[in-house]
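queue> holo job accepted (adenosine-5'-triphosphate)
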Amino acid sequence: MSKVYGDGTVAVGGLTLDVPAGELVVLIGPSGCGKSTVLRMINRLIQPTQGRILIDGDDVTDVDPVELRRRIGYVIQNVGLFPHQSIRANVGTVPRLLGWKKDRVRRRADELLELVGLDPARFGKRYPHELSGGQRQRAGVARALAADPSVLLMDEPFSAVDPIVRGKLQEEFLRLQAAVGKTIVLVTHDIDEAVKLGDRIAVLSEGGKLEQYAPPGELLAEPASDMVRDFVGADRGVRRLAVTPLSTVMRKVGPGHDTAGLPSVPDTGTLYDALAAMLTADALHVAVRNRDRVVGTVSRSAIFEAPADAIAR
Ligand SMILES: Nc1ncnc2c1ncn2[C@@H]1O[C@H](COP(=O)(O)OP(=O)(O)OP(=O)(O)O)[C@@H](O)[C@H]1O
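queue> job finished
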């Protein structure tokens, strides 16, 4: 696909990208490289100058716009909730457009509010300005999911909130995605967010040029160009810890093994989490838990001495 704006600006110069169903793909790149333009071409807010966009084999330009809205959820920075409508009405927007009965719209809105962790009884009647930034963000995600779209487009969805809330929303969002399994294209310019959320990351440079398209570990281990190397940063080696599962260096322990006094991390964590827990607690080892059961330990030296090819790629 490509987009040349009326004034001759080549925002996207011919990009081909295959997004596997059920995966979360992150578009990242410097300001003005065409990320938002790509996203808006997918949902037809912007007409491509050239090329085609297929969803499940259907060209989006052939799909009726109302049907397209049902199939594609869209979340933007600062959410874009309608200020004069209640949160419940906001979340019910697309189902209403689709002509669902009032009761069904309401039930669906409340179900979605629950799903994103907003109590419908408490928040349903409020207006957007009566919510915190993080709560508005969750309402925005609920609205985008309301008609059960197969595709979710998210343009810097977590950038308008402070870093702590952002971290929490990202965690919640990963849990939500594990439950709903949408195909997601997410735009960010935060490499840590990209590494944390993406199954694959597409690094774009000016004009929507695809510099590299790879899973986070591979991107960090083997940047395909100088541009990508600069972009992922000199500390990419440390970032790789954040995509390496604990299992690579964990020593298994049997039941009854004494780990009293050690900091602990869940077995779903990464080497980054283990190192952070040890540094925070000034400990040389960390216990690895599966729920309440200790299943292994990881030591600082095991992380530092891990062979390079054991670290994720
Ligand atoms: N309506 C327009 N008319 C002309 N040029 C435009 C228009 N909209 C965007 N552009 C230009 O197209 C290029 C890509 O813009 P786009 O918003 O897609 O970038 P982006 O990567 O999302 O940037 P950012 O990270 O800053 O949001 C930029 O050079 C921008 O100035």
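queue> The first helix runs from residue 35 to 42.
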